[in-house]
Amino acid sequence: MTDIKKSDRVLGILGILQSLIIIGISYLLVGMLIELQEDFNFMAEEAQDCDFLYGCTEEQEAELEEFVDFVQSKVIIWQALWAFSIFTGIALTVVAIRLANGANILATVLLPNENRRLFFYTLALICLFLFVIGYWEETITIEIAEKVNEMGDEETIDEEEYERSWTSNGFAVGYCHTAFLFIVCIIAFFTRDKPRTDESDIGVNMLNPEDDSLDIDNEDSLESAITSEGKSDEE
To answer: Is 0.70 topped by the overall pTM?
Structure first.
């Protein structure tokens, strides 16, 4: 069994904990979105009887059905993104276990003998994916706000005038994950392998000590010859 650095074990354990956090948060958000989907399904059923229950006109009923269908389609994509985030957390768990105990999990496919590099690549990709989710969440918020205003009497919201808060669920989790990535990068920097002297040169010098002594003798004889010539010139 190959020797595993203590720092790699620490990084692997921290990675496992972070992956569990990502999986847990993603699972909770998927559950909330499922409940939201059920609420809009109920709204879709009521929209079919809008003229009977609320006295809506046919045009208003059509607008309401279109709005509900629009939101339902976006919520489904929303669920899919956070569900995929669960799989990214599982992938991070596998990579972290591989780093912590040196297990040959997918070693023939993903960067063999490069467990630490694979670990940081995975963290960076997850960080990017979380920010993509956050940006998409804010974009869909703008679109839903525009749809709501189109159904009302007010003017539509201009997306350029809408200020992004950059605090959606994806951004919040992404900020935390970025902080974690920064911490493990610091740990990895101070525990990186130091450059070593070429062992082949050391071995050659140890096997041929006589050559070194001969070189030293030759240098001494050359210096003595130069000194003697200098003295003869002075005379």
So the answer is: yes
Place of tokens 């799989």: 87
Question: Among 119, 166, 152, 131, which residue's Cα sits nearest to residue 12?
Answer: 119
pLDDT of residue 148: 78
Distance in angstroms (rounded) separating the CA atoms of residues 58 and 234: 121
- Give CA–CA dist 227/217, Å, rounded: 15
Q: What is the DSSP string of 207-231?
A: H-HHHHHHHHHHHHHHHHHHHHHHH
pLDDT averaged per 10 residues in sequence order, the chain, 235 residues: 80 95 96 88 70 62 81 91 96 91 67 82 96 93 82 56 76 95 94 62 48 51 54 49
Q: Is residue 122 helix, strand or coil?
A: helix
What CA–CA distance (Å, rounded) separates 233 from 235?
A: 5
Task: Using alpha carbons, select from 12, 25, 51 the residue that is nearest to residue 174.
Answer: 25
Q: How far apart are the C-alpha atoms of 82 and 22, rounded to whole Å?
A: 10
